[in-house]
Amino acid sequence: MLTNLNCKNAKNETPGKGVSFALNEYRKKTIDSIHYAIELEIPSQKIQAIEGKQLITFNLKSLDSALVMDFSTDSAHVHAVKSAGKEISYDFINEHIVIKTDQLVKGKNEIEIIFTAGDLSLNRNEEYLYTLFVPDRASTCFPLFDQPNLKASYSLTLKTPKHWEAVSNGILKEKTSTGDQNIYHFEKTKPISSYLFAFAVGKFFKTEKIVDNRAMTMYYRETDSVKVKRNSDEVFNLHAKSLTWLEDYTAIKYPFGKFDFVLIPSFQYGGMEHPGSIFYNESSLFLDENAPINRKLARASVIAHESAHMWFGDLVTMDWFNDVWLKEVFANFMAAKIVHPSFPEINHDLRFLLAHYPGAYEVDRSSGTNPILQKLGNLKNAGTLYGGIIYQKAPIVMRQLEKKIGENLMRESLREYLKSFSFSNAKWDDLIGIIDNKSPEDITTWSNVWVKTPGMPEYEFVGNKDEIQIQQKKDSLSGRIWQQPVVTIWKEMFAQGSIRINLNNKPQNVRKPDLPAMVFPNSNGQGYGYFKMDSVSEDYFLKNYNSAKDTMLIDPVFRGAMLVNIWEGFLRGDGAAPEHFISILIDILPKENNALISDNLLGNLQTTWWTFLTESQRSQYQEKIEKVLWTLLETTTDKGMKNSYFRVFKNIAMTDDGLSKVESLWNEKLKVKDLILSEDDKITLAYELILKQKGDGKAIFEKQLNDTKNPDRKSRMKFVIPALSPDQNVRDAFFESLKRPENREHEAWVLEALGYLHHPLRAKNANKYLKPSLDLLQEVQLTGDIFFPQRWLSATFSGHSDLESANIASSFLKANPDYPYYLKNKILQSTDMLDRAVKLKK
C-alpha cells in the first residue's frame, strides 16, 4: 500500500531536487530496456565547456505521468530535446527534464538531448580529468535516470585533445585521429547502474600485460619510472589472483569482458569499482621502497575489494542506496579472504581485528552512531550513509554470520544470490531469505539486532569469592540481545584456561575461582562490544607484556585483543589517566615485535599525545618519547617498521635535537641505514620544519618545490603551503578561500591543508574557523564526494581538544535543532574524541 501511494504521489507531484524514494519506485515500475549513446567533446583547456549529445532509448510501460529525467545542473545547460529528429517541448523543474506524455509513446522511445556537461563530478585538471558518479552524480554531468535499479547499457564516444589517452567501461572499438583530436569509440557495455558508468581522459602512461591468460591495461600519471617498475608486476598479479579466486568462489566468470584500471593522483577514495575500468588512488598502489607490511596489506586489500565489487555491487547491485552497505560488506568480506594466499606470513585473524574493530568502535561508541542498514528518503543524501559502520562494522557482522551458518552454507547462499540477481538488483532481505530457507538458525531475528539497530553491546564482569560472571549491560533498546559467542581466558594462581560462552542478556558463569583470579575477555578478538577489564588483569597484562613466561602473552591475537579492550577502557574513562597511559604506551612499544600491533600502538600513541595530553604533559615526556622512537628507528631490522617509526618521529619531534634530526634527514646530511625517503616523505619533512618554525620556512618551501619532480605533487604543494604559514593573516585568507566550491575540488589537497591549519600547535588560533566550517557543511555535502563531509569534519576537529572547541560544536547543534539527521550524526562522530579529551583532561 505504501509503495502504491508513493508511486501515485510521484505521478502527481512536481519533482523535487534529487531522486525521492517515490520517484525511484515509480520509474522502476514503468521504465526498462534503457540504452545511452553518449558523445562528449573534451577541450584541452580546463576552463572550456564540454559539449555533448546523447540518444536515450528506453521502453515506457505507461503514459499516465510525465517522464522525469535527472540533470542536476542549470537549465541553460540543456540546448535541445528531440524525438524522431524534431525538437519537442519540455520543462526544466528542480534539476529535472520533464517531458509530457503527449511527446511520448507507450513502448520504445528515443529521446535525443544536446547539452553542456556539468563539471561537478568531472574532476578536471589541466592535463587530465576523470568522472566519479557515485552515488547520484552521473546526473551532474549528463541527463539520465540516475538511480541504481534502472540499469542501462552505455555506448560512449569521446573526442579528446591529441596525445590524450581515454578509458571507459566498454571495450575500445575504434580510435581515430583528425586534426588536433583523437576520437575514441567504445563498445556498448553490459547493463550497469548509473553510478558505475565512468571514463578518464588525459596525459596518462599506459602498460598492458597478460596474466593467467587475462589481458589487463594500467593507466597512470606517476613520473618516477623506478617506482612504477618496482610496483607494476605486483599490481597486475594481485588483480589476477583476486579475479581467479572470485571466479572460483562464485562459480561465475568475470562478468564484464575487458579489465582495465586507472591510477589517479589524489583520488578521493582508495578505489572505485567501475566495471571494466577501476579507478585507484595512485599512492595506494605505487608504494615507496621498504613500505611497511600494513601498506602492502592495504594495497592487496583495496585491489581485492574493488575486484570483489565486480560481482558484489556491479553484477548484483543494491535496489536502493539504503542497502549500499550490502555491496561494501561483501567486498570487504571477500577481500579479507582473498589476501590470505598472497600473505601467508601474516596472522590474518590479527589483521582483521586491527583493521576493523577500532574503526567500527570509533563510530559506534559515539552518540552519532547509526545502524548498518539505514533509512534513505532521497538519493541526494545517499553519500552521508558511508562511514565506519559500513566499512568496518559490517564485515565483522558478516563474519559472525558465516560462523553462525558455516562457510559452506554461506558460499552456497551467495552463489544462489548472485545467480538469481545477475545484472539486476537485490536487497539485504533477499539474501537473508535465501539463507533462512537453508539454515535451521533464526537469521532474521539475529539480523534485526545486528544490522537494523545502532550501537554496540557493553559487557561487565561481576564476581565474588564464589564465582565470576559476565553479563550484557542493559542499553537504550529494551530487551535487545546481542547474540554472539565470546571466548574468555581466566587465570588463577596455579591454573589457567579458557571458556566459550554464547552471550545473551543474562549473567553467565566464567569460572569459580581460587582467588586471586584474573579474567581476559574476548581473548580471541572475535566478539564485538566493549569488554570492561578489571585493573588487576589489565596490570598483569601490561607489566608482563609479551613475556615468554606466559604462553597467552606471546599470542599476537591475544595481545591485539587486550590492547583494543584497554584502549576502549581508556577512552571511556575506565583506565589510566592520560599522563599515565602515554607512559604505558612508551613502555610497551619497544617490547612489541609484531608490525601490525606496532602500527596500532603508534596510532594510539599519536592520538594520546596530541589529543589527550596537555602542553605541559607533552613537555614532560618530550625527550623520552623522541629518544624511544629514534632508538627504534635506528635499531629495528624490519624495513617497513623503520618507515613507520620515522613517520611518527617526524610528527612528534619538538626538541632542538629532534628537529635537527628532521632537518638533517630532509637536507640529506643525515642517513639512517635502510631508511629510504620518497619524494612524498621529503615534502612532509619540509612541512614539519615549516610548521614548527625550524629554519627559514620560505627558503625550505622553495627548495623542496624545486627538488620535487612530479608535476602533480608540485601543484599540491602550492595549494597546501598557505595553511602552514606562520602568518595568521595568510592562514585566514586561505580558510576564506575554501568557502568557494571551486577551491575545494581537490579534496585530498583540502584535507591535508586542513590538518595543518588545525594542527594542535595552531589549534587555539584555529578555533575561529570551527563555526564557519560547520556552517559550510551542508554545501560541502552537496558539492563534494561521498566521504568528503566526514573527512572535512575530521580534519577540522582532529587537532582540537579543549573546552572552547567542544562548546562551539555543541552550541552549533543546539542552535540548529532541525539540522539534517545524517549530518548531525557526522558532527557527533567527528567531535566524540574531542568531547572525551575534555572529560579526561579534567
Automatic annotation (TrEMBL):
One Gene Ontology CC term in the entry: cytoplasm
Domain Aminopeptidase N-like N-terminal: residue ranges: 34-196
Keyword Magnesium belongs to the record: no
GO biological process: peptide catabolic process; proteolysis
The EC number(s) this enzyme carries: 3.4.11.2
InterPro entries noted in UniProt: Aminopeptidase_N-like_N, Aminopeptidase_N-like_N_sf, Peptidase_M1, Peptidase_M1_aminopeptidases, Peptidase_M1_dom, Peptidase_M4/M1_CTD_sf
A Pfam family of this chain: Peptidase_M1_N
Catalysed reactions listed for this entry: Release of an N-terminal amino acid, Xaa-|-Yaa- from a peptide, amide or arylamide. Xaa is preferably Ala, but may be most amino acids including Pro (slow action). When a terminal hydrophobic residue is followed by a prolyl residue, the two may be released as an intact Xaa-Pro dipeptide
GO molecular function terms noted in the UniProt entry: alanyl aminopeptidase activity; metalloaminopeptidase activity; peptide binding; zinc ion binding
Domain (Peptidase M1 membrane alanine aminopeptidase): residue spans on this chain: 236-450
DNA-binding as UniProt keyword: no
Entry superkingdom: Bacteria
Alphabetized UniProt keyword annotations: Aminopeptidase, Hydrolase, Metal-binding, Metalloprotease, Protease, Zinc
Obligatory cofactor(s): Zn(2+)
Similarity remark: Belongs to the peptidase M1 family.
Name listed for the protein in its UniProt record: Aminopeptidase N
Organism: Dyadobacter frigoris
Lineage, broadest ranks: Bacteria, Pseudomonadati, Bacteroidota, Cytophagia, Cytophagales
